[in-house]
Sequence to fold (324 residues):
Amino acid sequence: MHISVYVPQHAVIEAISPAYRLFKTANEFLSAAGKKPKFEIEYVGLQKIVKANDGEYSIKMDKLIEEVKKTDLIFIPALYGNMKQAVSSNAKAIPWIQKMHKKGAEVASLCIGAFLLGATGLVDGKKCSTHWAYCSEFKDMYPYVEVVDGAIVTHQGRIYSSGGANSLWNLLLYLLEKYSDRETAILASKYFAIDIDRSSQAAFAMFTGQKHHDDKEILKAQDYVENNIHEKISIDELAKISAIGRRTFERRFKEATNHTVLEYIQRLKIESAKRQFENNRKNVSDVMYEVGYTDTKAFRDLFKKLTGLTPIEYRNKYSKISAL
Fold:
């Protein structure tokens, strides 16, 4: 099987080597088990030497992309810096990725490599994962793509994408298992100390709100929610504070923040609860009341939906005090 790791201009160095290392190591595992190595893997790019991060690192290519006439799998590692500029710097690779996919290649983006994947149009009308912190920006740049917020691995036809940072390893293991077997994937997960079946990045997400917009009335409502997190807040109340009719307020809020009003309030309240669980040993009921909830089941269900963990599980996992 032929694997091409496209090394983008403006690459994140930490995202370049994992695919190469994993599949090379898998070949060694297969050989040690008396099996034939399956993977031919190489770095490809627009230039023979590609700089990563702020030019701190140099990566030597095995081939230029025009030399690759056919491949089975393309990896797109995470981009670095300003996403629009990074995508523009890699524009010449887009037709090649499209061409290889048309010839039968599968394409996998790692973390915010999803921005270059989005530029190919291959995920228009499909689902895609990226780093939780970049979901809003991705939605703005690629409105025809359905971002799967919090997902570790998303698979759509011959397209794969991963969540943020170390989540890329879960996608790599997912593909290794697909192209070899479960035994090899488990061995690799143990070798690299990666939880093979982790399915959500929700527990790591931090919701800070989307305030990079110019709608002053909506910013006023957002500030009110943040300063009154302990209260039960209604949409009518926020619309009144903003001096906007409810329907217009809801529409403008969604346009400005990429969230409905209810989603935004819920996420801020759960984020506040997370911070309290991290910094003290308050019981769940106390924290629940402090962020404006009175229904234990409703609070627990929402917390688990947004973090992937129950309140108690989250507190036990991340509390600074419990680690002392």
